[in-house]
Amino acid sequence: MKILVLIESINNKIHPVSIEALVAAQNIASENSVEIYPLCLNKNLIDDLSKFKCTKVLNVESLDLKNYEPMTYLDAAEKVFKAMDADLIMLGHTYETRDWAPRLSARLDIPFLSDCININLSDSKLIINRPIYQAKLIQKIALSDKGLVSFQAGSFSSENLIHENSPSESLSIELNSYDSIKQGERFQESAGGVDLTASDFIVSIGRGLGKEENIPLAQNLADKINAQIGASRPVVDAGWLDHSRQIGSSGQVVSPKLYFSLGISGAIQHLVGMKGSKQIIAINKDPNAPIFEIADYAVIGDVLEILPKLTENL
User: Fold this and answer.
1) Which helix (H) or strand (E) holds 261?
2) Are 173 and 202 members of one domain?
């Protein structure tokens, strides 16, 4: 099996979700006869990619793309996939891939499984998991032929990336669209939006905080540890915080080094958005709260009593 991992760049660096896609490919290859080919359209990233274990890092000889350009991504991925006679394309689930990946699926006449959270190879079939019905259920899909798979951010840990020097190769492939379309600026969030995915520390609040006037208690903790404030959907629906702070299946998917869960019960829709966190500290007065099932540290008690003392002693 040959896996093509499409590498995206952000601010001239490897996009974190592309690293996760590479980890997913390495996981499959560790116990199976699988070849991994990261495809890099930004030549500045080749040296960094060559430090990770794979069969060979690929780039297109005539192409050096610093910013996202959909038709070029589409053209390059299609032609490299065919030239390599690859079986699978893996990539992160980003704004960009949502734009061009469905078109690639149509061009190659292969299924596109988007927003997935896990993948395994069993009896020559790929078993892929993805949340459905607002993450109330997990769908398992068996893929026995060629396909295209994108992964939610936080599905795989970059800490599991295997480092090993790998060769690289420039492919001589003629592209249709690159010379005719001017590169534009990379898509940016609208002003006022908060990118929680870039935060190492997040303090997330739920309705257990009681009322909007208690948010400064959480903000004091966040300020103390240089963290961003996140929220569950009920908090956003109540108008306490902006939607840009929402974490979960209908908000942002995060994987910080440390995640404080304050008064959040842990509905599956929220867990999908933060289960990739490296360390989870949960405070809730309900000992049966689902959040405790994935928390590394569980504190059972009134968050309004615990929070000021916790902040004071940090």
Assistant:
1) strand 258-262
2) no
Residue 224 tokens, joined:
């103390």
What is the mean predicted confidence (pLDDT) over 138-158?
88
Residue 188 lies in a domain: no
**DSSP H helix total and E strand total for the chain:** 8, 17
Question: From residue 170, how far is each of 63, 79, 289 by CA, in Å?
Answer: 10, 13, 53
Backbone angles phi, psi at 37, to 5 degrees: -125, 95
CA angle 195, 196, 198 (to 5 degrees): 80
Task: Evaluate if residue 9 carries a pLDDT over 50.
Answer: yes
158 and 261 assigned to the same domain? no
Partners of 202 in the beta sheet? 228, 259
Looking at per-residue confidence, does 135 or 13 come out higher? 13
Query: Are 130 and 220 members of one domain?
Result: no
Looking up residue 223, the CATH number of its domain turns out to be 3.40.50.1220
Provide the whole-model pTM: 0.72
The boundaries of the domain holding residue 304 are 196-312
Over the stretch 208-259, which tens digit does the pLDDT of each residue have?
999 999 999 999 999 999 999 999 999 999 999 998 899 987 788 888 999 9
